Amino acid sequence: MTYSIASLVAGALTGHRRWKPAWRKPEPKPSYDVVVVGGGGHGLATAYHLAATFGIRNVAVVEKGWIGSGNAGRNTTIIRSNYLLPGNVAFYELSMKLWERQEADLNFNTMVSQRGVLNLYHSDSQRDAYARRGNSMRLNGIDAELLTREEVMARHPYLDYDNARFPIRGGLLQRRGGTARHDGVVWGYARAADRLGVDIIENAEVTGFLREGGRIVGVETSRGAIRAGKVGMAVAGNTSRVASLAGLRLPIESHVLQAFVSEGLKPTVDGVITFGAGHFYVSQSDKGGLVFGGDIDGYNSYAQRGNLPVIRDVCEGGMAVMPMIGRARILRHWGGIMDMSMDGSPIIDRTPIDGLYLNAGWCYGGFKATPASGMTFAHLLARDAPHPTATLLTLDRFRSGAVVDEKGMGAQPNLH
Question: pTM, whole model, 2 decimals?
Answer without folding.
Answer: 0.96
